[in-house]
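Weekly modeling sync, notes
Attendees: S.R. (lead), two postdocs, one rotation student

Agenda item 3: backlog of single-chain predictions. S.R. asked that every request posted to the team notebook include the full sequence so nobody has to chase files. The rotation student volunteered to paste the first one in as an example of the format we agreed on. Action items at the bottom.

Example entry:
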Amino acid sequence: MRRKLVVGNWKMNGSRTSNAVLLSEIVAGLTASGAASAVCVPAPYLAQCQAQLAGSALCWGAQDVSAHASGAYTGEISVAMLRDFACHYVVIGHSERRAYHGESDAQVAAKTVAALAAGITPIVCIGETLAQREAGQTDAVVAQQLGAVLEAISADDVAKLVLAYEPVWAIGTGKTATPQMAQDVHQVLRGQLAAKNAVAAAGVQILYGGSMKPENAKELMAMPDIDGGLIGGAALKAADFLAIIHAAD
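Predicted structure, as returned to the notebook:
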């Protein structure tokens, strides 16, 4: 059985004061949950997470990382820097990075390789736009995105991945894929992982990242290949985030 994983992606939100309250409320409410949980926060708040969450059940991570180890890359953050703050996870290839910053499949793959080499678990995001879904291209799009990553890593490293399927048309729009629609894509992704390493594929957590909320979390996570969620807006409210975590039990 794969353990469920619920990860909050704070995006560009937060302040030292509001973060302290939110994190405290989440940690206080985590008792008796069987799911793993984490928050991926803006880089300036990683030190705050490390100080406040050390020893708790709530893990933390970053929202992006450079493929480069160091050097003249102004504004970038290296894997070594993330390790300084004991990051467990890093989100890679989020649709907002792909759309607003032009990240290519090759760049996503390179960042994944860098994270794996540093012992940080990459949460690799994959998903299609509304136009691509309506054109019947969903399976081809996600296969291409995941394929670039799988070509860049070893078969053994498959076990170290977390995937997040995030249909772009369902992020922040209030629209959500039906549980069966999401399951269909998750099944395709697991099959692609299995072609690289069948044993490892069975254990890889594949999260759903398209507007998961307390109202739909339980139904989504009841599907056989949906192993948790990458949560946006609902992760900024402790009660909502905790409700999703407990829905995974």
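Discussion: group reviewed the output briefly. The CA atoms of residues 164 and 207 lie 4 Å apart.
Action items: rotation student to repeat for the remaining queue; S.R. to check formatting next week.
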